[in-house]
Write the structure tokens for this entry.
Amino acid sequence: MSEPSPAVARPGFPVSRQVLADHVYEALLEWLMDGRLKPGAAVSIDGMARELDVSPTPVREALARLEHTGMVRRVALKGYRVAPVFTREDFAELMEARLSIEPVNARLACARMTPEGLEALKQAVEDLKTAPRGGTFAEYRSYLEADERFHQLIAAQASNQFLLAAYNTLGGQIQRFRLFGGVGITDAEQAISEHQAVLDAMMSGDPEKAAQKMVDHVEKVRGRAIADAPEE
């Protein structure tokens, strides 16, 4: 097992329970994305707690969060296991769900966008353009964060609690980025151009155009993800 992530607090530095849980989540996510925790491997709460020098509680909380992303799965009476990498069929189904939700979010968000929300979207695209794209999770984490933030902002600006909840259950960004471990972001230029097109539509104030640009983006991501994903 690798050394604990530097994000995890060291003994002697008191932190709040939530901050500690966040640090543990980031450490485990890094190990999962970089493949240090292999698909199908058992994830011991007590073992991870010892490895990270924390109590089992923040590990348990982090694994519960990771379960929502689809990165780990809880097996009855057996604890957690690392989930398999998404297959082409998995990505096809995921993108089908995204196509049912995100264009609607874009349409509503365009109509309801606040000036502050629009500025935040612009910043997310700028951050995407300048973020590193290397082959380790540490190198492309900020790119993933900017990508996630862009879609999350649109979901939030749609101002529909049920659509937001539906979007949050997908975990789609994490699964797509799992394919980049060891190779880096392979579709950055295409993805940035597509995000910019969605942003431009939002700035134009045309809800239907915003929805269509989101359809275009998700469909293109679907094609790239299916091409990159392993077969069953």
